[in-house]
Amino acid sequence: MTAGNEEQEPLIQTSGDHQRVTYNTSPTNSNSPEGTPRNSGGEITLSIPTPNKTYGAIGGAEKVTYTWADINAFATESRSRSRGWCPMWRGSNNRMYQQRKQLLKNVNGAAYPGELLAIMGSSGAGKTTLLNSLTFRTPGGVVASGTRALNGQPANPDALAALSAYVQQQDLFIGTLTVREHLVFQALVRMDRHIPYAQRMRRVQEVISELALTKCQNTVIGIPGRLKGISGGEMKRLSFASEVLTDPPLMFCDEPTSGLDSFMAQNVIQVLKGLAQKGKTVVCTIHQPSSELYAMFDKLLIMADGRVAFLGSPDQATEFFKELGAACPPNYNPADHFIQLLAGTPGREEVTKHTIDTVCTAFAKSEIGCRIAAEAENALMYQRKITSGWADAAWTGTTAMRTRRSPYKASWCAQFRAVLWRSWLSVTKEPMLIKVRFLQTIMVSILIGVIYFGQNLDQDGVMNINGAIFMFLTNMTFQNIFAVINVFCSELPIFIREHHSGMYRADVYFLSKTLAEAPVFATIPLVFTTIAYYMIGLNPAPERFFIASGLAALITNVATSFGYLISCASSSVSMAASVGPPIIIPFMLFGGFFLNSGSVPPYLSWISYLSWFRYGNEALLVNQWTGVEQIACTRENFTCPASGQVVLDTLSFSEKDFTMDVVNMILLFIGFRLLAYIALVLRTRRAK
After folding, report:
1. CA-to-CA distance for 398 and 18, rounded, in angstroms?
2. Where are the beta strands (DSSP E) in 29-95?
3. What is the DSSP string of 267-285?
4. Given this model, what pLDDT does residue 432 score?
């Protein structure tokens, strides 16, 4: 604050649980909020809640007052995407941006403990943009600025994440888990690592009881169209339960009633109201609440064209709009009235703009608006102190909020155990992965065994056996690639949300997911080989059977690794399914069955070095024909291969390359897995 050319700091006096902040409001004070009510002494005195200290039990702080000041947001595009750009500012990644549209305009506000604050407005009014800005979750293409304060202290993303929970509009779950299993997993990765396991389980049971999930706690969550589970209202309450496990003092909810009927919507808002009554600060966005829901809100923040049209209680809103000559008609939903008053009407854009300007300006100059502006100024004052390096450090929570901490509550090992447990449950409970795949394997192996049944070591048998072995290879490849090609695509939104919430690391997720499915991919090739091997009449030596089984398992895992790579690099399941076959076919062509390995053009030889078809086919054929000294010739006037060595020479394969074939497949297995993990990390960073 300034008075003339000399800066005057506000007088702060602490009494009980409030601070009395006195500002000098002399006529020359240019920084006083416009329209601020002044007392006769040229001062304004505010009573602001004293910052609470944090506690280390399960949650963050006892009570949190969240204030924000001068929040602005712009839809932007980078310099590389525009022509004739005009640089407006530099983003955090040091790129130049071009202004396109201002989404939020100098938004001030506050949310208090024990209150349910609803952010309302028509479509495009800025509700979700404001909520994203308040939670530091602005998407790509949007740049936000302004001050956010927790109990008067400037907040950063880490400090806010430590004290808050965010319930997003879309409910994302692993559908094969039960409600209780989901909450147990959440407790293992979200609660402080020093909390004993028994206390975590007690907290899970408390939350189940508090949010009326007792009856469905052992019911699977469900997968739309595949697995019937809990209802939409129970799913929304489960979203709240996941967030309140850590007992956060501050909660944000984006459109919690979206897609619910009136009864379920009222049930959900009652849950939020109950959380607020326990002393939590609850902020939610809502599009068009019914009159019953409207009456349950403690405070309303009505947005219009990115500006604050009103912030206060429902009764204050009724009085405010009545004084403006826009009173709500009797027996009419006030929420509908306020939203329709400020909503854009096609063909009346100028009238709507004038109405919005009138309402927003009137609120800014009202007593409520001036008080909010002054509280926002208090937050800005603290921000300036910290920026200049002489902030008041009397409050013990300041250092904690300014210190950057690891976002992960659980240790690496604890994360790994929890994610591996959940991944194993999802694998064993997924009917498509276990029952259908084993049935498919048995049917295909019997079919191949019947078609190639009882081959003899003669001229025709050589061709048929080579074809059967390549069918082994092809089936192990396509069956397993298409089994995992959607693994990471389908779960990517869940992983990104949980990873960015600080629940577990990317390497933990990738390693756990692949290990949980490893037993399946080790068993399936063994089942396939056991059924078809002796039906076809392959090399009967026991050691040859076990070598063939090991090679089939190795080929399966290489193909699975390549499927993981496609899945991690694809943005959707349909894209992965479309991209997979065109990429696999070139590798198959260089496998030595359709094209002799010795006739591969030099400029395409690099593809053959990446083909597990080549290494797998050669290793299986070497295992089959090594030691075969005599092959019968059943046709006259034809040159017959006299031994297994001749068969290998004809295909340009060599027994000496067997070891390198195995080594190369192991290297491909490791390389594809590593590339898949890198692709997953890159996708995660792009989605941040």
Report:
1. 17
2. 43-49, 66-78, 87-90
3. HHHHHHHHHHHTT-EEEEE
4. 67
Q: Which helix (H) or strand (E) holds 253?
A: strand 250-254
- Closest to 503 measured CA to CA, from 208, 161, 264, 226: 161
Tokens describing residue 228? 């019937």
> What are the residues whose beta carbons fall under 8 Å from the beta carbon of 545, sequence distance 6 or more?
529, 533, 534, 538, 539
3-state secondary structure of 7: strand
pLDDT in tens, 451-497: 999 888 888 888 899 999 998 898 888 888 888 887 787 788 888 88
pLDDT at 51: 38
Query: Alpha-carbon distance 477 to 593, whole Å?
Result: 15
Report the helix count and the strand count for the chain, using DSSP H and E: 23, 16
Q: Cβ neighbours of residue 452 under 8 Å, at least 6 residues apart?
A: 464, 465, 467, 468, 471, 535, 536, 537
The helix or strand, by DSSP H or E, that contains position 318, with its residue range, turns out to be helix 314-323
Classified as helix, coil or strand, 299 is strand
Helix (H) or strand (E) holding 235: helix 232-244
How far CA 386 is from CA of 108, 218, 379, 403, 675, in Å, comes to 20, 50, 11, 13, 43
Q: CA-CA distance, 286 to 257, in Å (whole number)?
A: 7
Rounded CA separation 235/651 (Å): 59
Strand-by-strand arrangement of the 18-24 sheet: 11-15, 18-24, 43-49
| Residue ranges, the chain, pLDDT below 70 | 1-61, 77-99, 344-347, 376, 378-406, 431-433, 598, 635-638, 687-688
Cα–Cα–Cα angle for 568, 569, 572, rounded to 5 degrees: 80
Strands 11-15 and 87-90: unpaired
Give 70's Cβ-side CA count (13 Å radius). Answer: 11
The CA-based diameter of the chain, rounded to the nearest angstrom, is 122
Amino acid at the residue 398: T
Q: How far apart are alpha carbons 531 and 65 in whole angstroms?
A: 67
Strand-pairing partners, residue 23, are 44
Q: Specify the residue for token string 């601020």.
A: 36
Radius of gyration for the chain, computed over Cα atoms and rounded to the nearest angstrom:
33
- What's the rounded Cα separation, in Å, for the pair 249 and 279? 7
**What pLDDT score was predicted for residue 9?**
44
Per-residue pLDDT reduced to its tens digit, 204-248: 999 998 888 999 999 999 887 778 889 888 888 898 888 888 888
Retrieve residue 251's tokens: 């909660």
Q: For 31, which DSSP code?
A: T
What local confidence, expressed as pLDDT, does residue 385 receive? 58
pLDDT value at residue 431: 63
CB 161, CB 390: distance < 8 Å = no
Tell me if 68 sits within 8 A of 108, measured CB to CB. yes
- Which domains are assigned to the chain? 2-49 (no CATH), 66-390 (3.40.50.300), 431-686 (no CATH)
Give Cα separations from 688 to 286, 331, 361, 399, 412 (angstroms): 25, 46, 36, 27, 21
Closest C-alpha among 666, 657, 644, 453 to residue 553:
666
Helix (H) or strand (E) holding 307: strand 307-312
Q: What is the rounded distance in angstroms from the CA atom of residue 21 to the CA atom of residue 16?
A: 14
Tokens of 557: 């895992």
